[in-house]
C-alpha cells in the first residue's frame, strides 16, 4: 500500500473529484460513511459518544459521521472546537445541513467542553492531515483533557496533533487514540515506532480515490501488504528438484554460540532452500550435525572457536554471514577476506555488522545488492546516532543509496531501505518476537529465498513479512511471553501456506 504525503493526498482528492467525477462534499460523505460502517461494527451496542470536530475538513468528516450514526439510533453529540474563526467550505456545508440532528456544543474555551465522563467513546475529528503547526491554546488543553479522560478514543484519519510526515515532539498536544481509522493510503507517521501511542490500532479504509492516479505518484514509502507479497512469491513447478531451489551457505556461530547457526540453518530449510550448508568453527561441528541433520556442515579450516577462513563460496547460490560469529580479530580478517573473494551479494547480520561498523574500508567494500539486517542499535553503530526516527529513516535511505545495498531496521514495522531510495514498512510481527535468536531466523529465511532465485530486494521484503507472520502465528498459539525463536521456525510452514494462494 502506498504511503503518501498530505500534498499528494490532496492531489489524489482533487483528481478524483475532477475525473470520477464527484463533488468534494460527496467525497467527504463517502469517507464519513466508511468510518461509520467500521464504527457500527466496532460498537454495535450504540454507546453514547462525543464527536469532537474542528472547523476544517477533518471536522467536516466528524459532522457527517454524527449524522450517519444519529440516523442509526446512536446517541451522539458533537463538540465544535472553534480553533479558528474561519471554517472550511465542506465543513460549513454539512454543519448547516445537519447540526439540528444532534446536540451541538460550541467550544471556544476549555470550559465549554461538556463533562466527558458521560460518554463511552470520544471520536477525534479536530485536526486531520491539514495540521501544519503545533496545537496551542485552548485546543491543546482540550486534547490533554481527552487524553486524560480514560475513555476510548478513536481518531478520524490521523490523531489530532500528529504530523503526517515530520517529527512530532512528545511535548506537543497530540491525541493518543486506541484506534486510527485512516482513509485510502498510509501516512508516514503511522509506521514509526516512536509514534505508537499516537496511532493505536491502525485501519486504513478504501474511500474510492483514483487508484491509477495514486499509483502514478512518485512516493518513496510503502507498506508491504499480503497482496504485494503474493505477487512476489515464486511458483514451484511439478518437475523441480532440490537443485532448482538453490544451495544456501550460512557462515555462523562461534564456540558457545552454535545455536545461532542452528536457528539460521533450520529457518533456511523451512523457507524452501534446496540445500543448506553451514560453515562453523570446528568445535561446533558435532553439535550442529546432531541439531540439524538436514544441513551439511563445513568445518572452518583454521578456526576452532571462531570464523577464521571463509570456504570457497562460488558453488553457493546465496551466502549469509554473521549470526553468532563474534568480533575476534581473526573473524574481522576473515570477513574482509570474504568481501574480497566472494562474487555477488551477501546477507550480513549481527556481528558481521558490528565488525563493519568498526571499519570504514569494509563498509565501502560491501558487495552491491547485499542485504544488511541490523536491529536499531546495530544500525546506530553503522551510521551514528539520530535525534528522531524521521532522521533515522533519512539515514537508512542515504546508506542504501550510497552503497547500493538493501538495509532493514528490525523492530515494529521493520523498515526496508532499497538502493533506489524507496522504503517498505512491514506490517507483520509482534513484541513477543523480541527474543534471542529471532534475528538469526530472519537471516536464514532471507538467505533461503535468495538461494531460490529471489532478487535480494524481494527476498528481504518477503522474508521480513513471512518472519513476522510466522511470529504472529506463534504468538497466537503460545502467547507472546513464552515465544522463543524456534517457535517462529515451527510456524514458518503456516506462514508460507498463507501467502502461497495456490494452496488456499
Ligand atoms: N482525500 C482527502 O483529502 C480527504 C480528506 N478528508 C478529510 O480532510 C482532512 C484534511 O482536511 P483539511 O485539509 O481541511 O485540514 P484539517 O481538518 O486537518 O485542518 C484544518 C485547518 O486548520 C489549520 N491549521 C493547521 N494546523 C493548525 C494549528 N495547529 N492550529 C490552528 N489551525 C491549524 C490549517 O489551515 C487547516 O487547513 C483529512 O484528514 C480527512 O479527515 C475527507 O473528508 C475525505 C477526503
Ligand atoms: K483527527
UniProtKB/TrEMBL annotation:
UniProt keyword Repeat present: no
SUPFAM superfamilies associated with the record: Ribokinase-like, YjeF N-terminal domain-like
Binding site for (6S)-NADPHX: 57-61, 128-134, 157, 260, 324, 375, 440
InterPro entries: Carbohydrate_kinase_pred_CS (IPR017953), CARKD (IPR000631), Nnr (IPR030677), Ribokinase-like (IPR029056), YjeF_N_dom (IPR004443), YjeF_N_dom_sf (IPR036652)
Binding site for K(+): 58, 124, 160
Annotated ranges, domain YjeF N-terminal: 9-215
Keyword ATP-binding attached: yes
Keywords per UniProt: ATP-binding, Isomerase, Lyase, Metal-binding, Multifunctional enzyme, NAD, NADP, Nucleotide-binding, Potassium
Span of domain YjeF C-terminal: 225-499
Textual note on the cofactor: Binds 1 potassium ion per subunit.
Pfam annotation, one family: YjeF_N
EC number annotated for this UniProt entry: 4.2.1.136, 5.1.99.6
Catalytic activity: (6S)-NADHX + ADP = AMP + phosphate + NADH + H(+); (6R)-NADPHX = (6S)-NADPHX; (6R)-NADHX = (6S)-NADHX; (6S)-NADPHX + ADP = AMP + phosphate + NADPH + H(+)
Binding residues for AMP: 410-414, 439
CDD domains from the UniProt entry: YXKO-related
Cofactor(s) this protein cannot do without: K(+); Mg(2+)
Summary of subunit composition and partner proteins: Homotetramer.
NCBIfam families (alphabetical): yjeF_cterm (TIGR00196), yjeF_nterm (TIGR00197)
Family, per entry: In the C-terminal section; belongs to the NnrD/CARKD family.
Function: Catalyzes the dehydration of the S-form of NAD(P)HX at the expense of ADP, which is converted to AMP. Together with NAD(P)HX epimerase, which catalyzes the epimerization of the S- and R-forms, the enzyme allows the repair of both epimers of NAD(P)HX, a damaged form of NAD(P)H that is a result of enzymatic or heat-dependent hydration. Catalyzes the epimerization of the S- and R-forms of NAD(P)HX, a damaged form of NAD(P)H that is a result of enzymatic or heat-dependent hydration. This is a prerequisite for the S-specific NAD(P)H-hydrate dehydratase to allow the repair of both epimers of NAD(P)HX.
The protein's name in its UniProt record: Bifunctional NAD(P)H-hydrate repair enzyme
Species, as recorded: Persicobacter psychrovividus
Amino acid at each position: 500500500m502506498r504511503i503518501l504525503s498530505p500534498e499528494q493526498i490532496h492531489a489524489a482528492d482533487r483528481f478524483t473529484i475532477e475525473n470520477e467525477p464527484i463533488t468534494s462534499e460527496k467525497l467527504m460523505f463517502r469517507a464519513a460513511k466508511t468510518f461509520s460502517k467500521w464504527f457500527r461494527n466496532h460498537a454495535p451496542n450504540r454507546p453514547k459518544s462525543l464527536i469532537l470536530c474542528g472547523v476544517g475538513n477533518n471536522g467536516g468528516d466528524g459532522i457527517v459521521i454524527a449524522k450517519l450514526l444519529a440516523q442509526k439510533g446512536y446517541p451522539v453529540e458533537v463538540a465544535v472546537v472553534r480553533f479558528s474563526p474561519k471554517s472550511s467550505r465542506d465543513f460549513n456545508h454539512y454543519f448547516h445541513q445537519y447540526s439540528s440532528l444532534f446536540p451541538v456544543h460550541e467550544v471556544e474555551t476549555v470550559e465549554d467542553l461538556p463533562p466527558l465522563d458521560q460518554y463511552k467513546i470520544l471520536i477525534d475529528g479536530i485536526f486531520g492531515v491539514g495540521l501544519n503547526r503545533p496545537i496551542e491554546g485552548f485546543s491543546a488543553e482540550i486534547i490533554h483533557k481527552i487524553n486524560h479522560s480514560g475513555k476510548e478514543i478513536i481518531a478520524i484519519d490521523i490523531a489530532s496533533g500528529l504530523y503526517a510526515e515530520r517529527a512530532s515532539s512528545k511535548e506537543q498536544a497530540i491525541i493518543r487514540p486506541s484506534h486510527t481509522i485512516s482513509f485510502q493510503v498510509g501516512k508516514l507517521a503511522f509506521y514509526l515506532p516512536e509514534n505508537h501511542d499516537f496511532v493505536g490500532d491502525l485501519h486504513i479504509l478504501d474511500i474510492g480515490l483514483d487508484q491509477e492516479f495514486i499509483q502514478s505518484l512518485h512516493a518513496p514509502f510503502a507498506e508491504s501488504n499480503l497482496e504485494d507479497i503474493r505477487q512476489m512469491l515464486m511458483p514451484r513447478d511439478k518437475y523441480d528438484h532440490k537443485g532448482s531451489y538453490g544451495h544456501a551457505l550460512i557462515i555462523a556461530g562461534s564456540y558457545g554460540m552454535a545455536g545461532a547457526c542452528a536457528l539460521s540453518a533450520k529457518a533456511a530449510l523451512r523457507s524452501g532452500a534446496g540445500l543448506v550448508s553451514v560453515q562453523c568453527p570446528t568445535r561446533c561441528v558435532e553439535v550442529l550435525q546432531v541439531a540439524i541433520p538436514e544441513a551439511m556442515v563445513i568445518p572452518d579450516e583454521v578456526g576452532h572457536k571462531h570464523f577464521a577462513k571463509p570456504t570457497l563460496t562460488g558453488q553457493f547460490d546465496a551466502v549469509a554471514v554473521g549470526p553468532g560469529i563474534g568480533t575476534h580479530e581473526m573473524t574481522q580478517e576473515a570477513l574482509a577476506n570474504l568481501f574480497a573473494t566472494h562474487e555477488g551479494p551477501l546477507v550480513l547480520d549481527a556481528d558481521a555488522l558490528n565488525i563493519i561498523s568498526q571499519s570504514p574500508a569494509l563498509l565501502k567494500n560491501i558487495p552491491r545488492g547485499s542485504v544488511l539486517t541490523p536491529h536499531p542499535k546495530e544500525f546506530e553503530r553503522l551510521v551514528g546516532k539520530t535525534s528522531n526516527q524521521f532522521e533515522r529513516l533519512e539515514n537508512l535511505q542515504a546508506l542504501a543509496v550510497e552503497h547500493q545495498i538493501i538495509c532493514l531496521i528490525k523492530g515494529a514495522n521493520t523498515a526496508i531501505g532499497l538502493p533506489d531510495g524507496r522504503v517498505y514498512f512491514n506490517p507483520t510481527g509482534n513484541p513477543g518476537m523480541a527474543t534471542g535468536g529471532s534475528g538469526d531466523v530472519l537471516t536464514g529465511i532471507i538467505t533461503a529465498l535468495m538461494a531460490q532465485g529471489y532478487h535480494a530486494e524481494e527476498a528481504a521484503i518477503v522474508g521480513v513479512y513471512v518472519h513476522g507472520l510466522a511470529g504472529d502465528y506463534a504468538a497466537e498459539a503460545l502467547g507472546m511471553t513464552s515465544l522463543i525463536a524456534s517457535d517462529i521456525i515451527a510456524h514458518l510452514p503456516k506462514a508460507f501456506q498463507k501467502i502461497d494462494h495456490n494452496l488456499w
